[in-house]
Amino acid sequence: MVKKRSGPNSNEGHASDLRRQAEEKMHRQSEKLDDFSPDDAQKMLHELQVHQIELEMQNDELRRTQLELEASRDQYADLYDFAPIGYLTNSEQGVILNANLTAASLLSTPKGSLIGKPFTRFIIKEDQDIYYLKCKRLFETGEEQTCELRIKGKDGVSFWVQINSLMTQDSEGQLLCRVTLSDITERVQAEISVKQQARKLARSNAFTTMLSEVSLHVGTSLNSRKIMEILGVELKKLGLDCVIATQDSDMQAMFIRYDSLDSKALTLSEKLLGLNLRDFPVPRAIWEPLAPGIFEREQPLFVSRLVESTAVMMPHIPLPLLERSLRLAGVSVEDSVAYLPLMARRQPIGILAVWGPSLVEKDIPILSVFARQIAITLENARLYNTERAKTYDLDGRVKELNCLYGISHLFETPDISLERILQGTVELLPPAWHYPQITCARIIYGKQEFRTTGFEETIWKQAAMINVSGEQVGAVEVYYREENSESDAGVFLKEKRSLIDEVTERLGDIIERMEMEGKLRQQARNDPLTGILNRRYFFELAEKELERAHRYEHPLSVIMFDIDHFKRVNDSYGHSVGDQALCMLTAECQTGLRENDLFARYGGEEFIILLPEADQKQADQMAERIRKRLSGTKSLKSGAKTIFLTASFGVASLNGKKLSLDNLIIRSDGALYAAKKAGRNRVVVWNPEI
After folding, report:
1. Can you list the alpha helix ranges (DSSP code H) found in 482-574?
2. Count H helices, E strands: the chain?
3. Average pLDDT, the chain
4. Burial (Cβ within 10 Å: 0-12, 13-18, ≥19) of residue 328
5. In this structure, are residues 673 and 682 in contact, taking their beta carbons and an 8 Å threshold?
6. Is the pLDDT of residue 7 over 50?
7. Of 187, 211, 348, 462, which shows the fewest CB atoms inside 10 Å?
8. How far is residue 235's CA from residue 265's CA, in Å, rounded to a whole number?
9. Please, where are the H alpha helices in 291-342?
10. 418-428 and 497-525 are packed helices; what angle lies between their axes, rounded to 10 degrees?
């Protein structure tokens, strides 16, 4: 604490008193000078000279002390003004009485201009009540208050701050509010981003479930109406509606084949317009300019307002009447709509239109998969009807259908791998050709090959490419091992061309679907930064391991650890360096784990390892090995600086007891806390005294 300095008047009075006392003393001594001997006078002169030097030294010390006090005062002012967070002193009424430069910068106002202004003036209107209620509670209870709200920034752009408020008093006993301001915009935005990603993942999972349900029926049913109804029901679950329109035989108009709208509502709309919308033709001259290249480039069209594209297809209907009819049919004119081409063997057969309030352009890729499934169903039905008329080749068509059904059955087999699907498909191909006894087949996928028994590559070949998202990923090849004089090349190349195209198209859809499911499963199970298990999936697997350990009375242990002083790394070097530290740590830990160990990111910089078949001693040794590797070798470079990393560990084991997973984690977390408390960079095993 800096002592309060006396004012100038008090200093002058003190000096005059000292002078008066000195003169009196000098007068008394002068009366005795007559009695002094020369030696006494010489001695007194010496003492006076020494005393004079002492006074000069004291004056120098006082001046030095005064300079140090002034420097300390200036340093304190600098520390206050240039602190990393903003400081305010407010009255009980919320008026700003004092502020540092950081607060002035956050509030985009010169420091001098802040004084005397209500603090709420700088808070956006929607959040002012939050601060008011916190201040009220502060002066009612005297307890520290914390809240997060938005501050008006430059150019009208608001940002998030965390406010901590403490009650205090001035020298006169007036209640004051000490406020700290911290910019937390980056953290809040990160939290919002995480929530958005979670919503996106949930939506992707919902789409995948829909796709599974629709795909379950595609290929096993020739009832196209049933498949379209299933699609409509599944889309309804996501708040989406659809219309499926197909071209007539001469490719000059589109007719609606299916819609997911409420039948009664659609009837009301038809009465208002005086049209039968179910049989309403949209001429090619109208719909083709609406989506140039939708078929040529197989490029879906996304329109932000459904009413705009509908008005183009019905130009003779006044816009107000059209909007009213859409509302009667249960359609919001503000909904976004996606138009997706229905293609079969590279030929256009129709359009799938999907709309809804939650539809976004990023949904188009997965909706395109639905469009391909519907196109396959429609084409299967068409092929079936066409082939049924060709009674002369009924046997051949049955073989083809058996092949297609077999592929569909493979795809529906639970937990089947892509390799088993491809091997099963290649074995289904020869029986579908005219001469199965001399037919062999091969499927190439990436660097893998799947062949029939006795495969032989000859000059009598028929092949088609497997495409996924427009990229060639493989091929299906069918060979005759010998020339057959009873057949000609025309039959081989033409009649079976449609089958091999159908097989490759289905395989492309299957591969795309399984790749998408694999990515979604990985996103649902793994931490996006480090690639190890996330917390939710760790708990799912850990419960099974714990149940197994209890059932067979086997040992099991849990290790929890986190990086020491990780916040300093983020604060000093940035979150990108922090992310590098997390990735490096997880990579190092994985090298020392066993195959059955479960390793997950528990939260932030905290990690957890579950060790099946490991007792307390083994878990302690494992944790110590990991700790030594990290503290001995692992470091990061940030510019010219080297950052060394250490970690603290907590270990807990069943030790023959039937503990729940939560209890086991609580114990390991308690041991981790004890490791931190003991100085960090160490391993602590849980015991009842922790």
Report:
1. 489-490, 497-525, 535-552, 566-573
2. 21, 22
3. 82
4. middle
5. no
6. no
7. 187
8. 18
9. 306-313, 319-328
10. 170
* Spatial contact of 473 and 515, defined as CB atoms under 8 Å apart: no
Q: What kind and span of H or E run contains 344?
A: strand 336-344
Cβ atoms of 150 and 131 closer than 8 Å: no
pTM of the model: 0.36
Token pair listed for 250:
């001469």
Residues 6+ apart with CB under 8 A from 382: 344, 349
Say how many C-beta atoms besides its own lie within 10 A of residue 233's C-beta.
Answer: 13
Tokens of 288: 């083709």
Biggest CA–CA distance in the chain, Å, is 160
pLDDT in tens, 118-135: 999 999 999 999 999 999
**Would you state the torsion angle of the CA atoms of residues 280, 286, 291, 293, taken in this order, to the nearest 10 degrees?**
120
Rounded-to-10 torsion of CA 553, 559, 560, 565? 170
Query: Where would I find the H helices in 169-252?
Result: 185-217, 224-237
Residue 414's SS3 state is coil
Distances, alpha carbon 69 to alpha carbons 133, 175, 566, 590, in Å: 41, 29, 38, 57
Question: How far is residue 599's CA from residue 607's CA, in Å, rounded to a whole number?
Answer: 8
pLDDT band of 334, cuts 50, 70, 90: confident
Integer Cα distance of 317 and 470 in angstroms: 39
pLDDT at position 49 is: 74
Contact status, residue 572 vs residue 640, Cβ threshold 8 Å: no
At residue 341, the 3 state secondary structure works out as strand
Higher pLDDT, 7 or 103: 103
Split at pLDDT 50, 70, 90, the class of 470 is confident
Instruction: Supply the pLDDT for residue 204.
Output: 67
